[in-house]
Amino acid sequence: MSNFLIPAAYAQSAGGAGGGSSLMSFLPFVAVFAIMYFLLIRPQQKQQKQLKAELKALRRGDRIVTAGGVVGIVQRAKEDSEEVEVEIAPNVRVMVLRGTISTVLTSTAKPANDTATAKK
């Protein structure tokens, strides 16, 4: 019976070719992580930075979408406040938190110059 187990013991201890093979077996994991970083993580971080900048620069007249899917127009936004007043229907205004705004659809980069259009 003991002769039956001896070849298994030799087979288990015969491995270990050297330190180079462990590095080569670890290399695919590093490559997969690098690919995941450049294809998924990095673009998502850029989108988050862009949304954060857009939320900081919210102005009256910007069209937004909340996390719940409600589309509205910003009526009042203060830079130091987390609340934004949004009109979701004619004469229906609600207060939403900046963190719940998921998309800024249109942004008014410059304030509208109403007096210039009235003169024409």
Commentary on this structure:
This protein is an alpha+beta fold and 120 residues long. It has helices at residues 2-13, 19-56, 114-119, and strands at residues 63-66, 71-77, 83-89, 92-97, 101-106. It has three helices and five strands, in the order H-H-E-E-E-E-E-H. Strand 2 and strand 3 form a beta hairpin. The model has no long low-confidence stretch (mean pLDDT 81).
Task: Give a short summary of the structure.
By secondary structure, the protein is an alpha+beta fold. 47% of the residues lie in helices and 25% in strands. It is built from three helices and five strands.
Provide the CATH top-level class of the domain at 57-104.
Mainly Beta
How many helices? The count is 3
Number of strands: 5
Shape: elongated
Question: Helical proportion?
Answer: 40-55%
GO biological process, one term: protein transport
Subunit structure: Part of the SecDF-YidC-YajC translocase complex. The SecDF-YidC-YajC translocase forms a supercomplex with SecYEG, called the holo-translocon (HTL).
Main location: membrane
Family: Belongs to the YajC family.
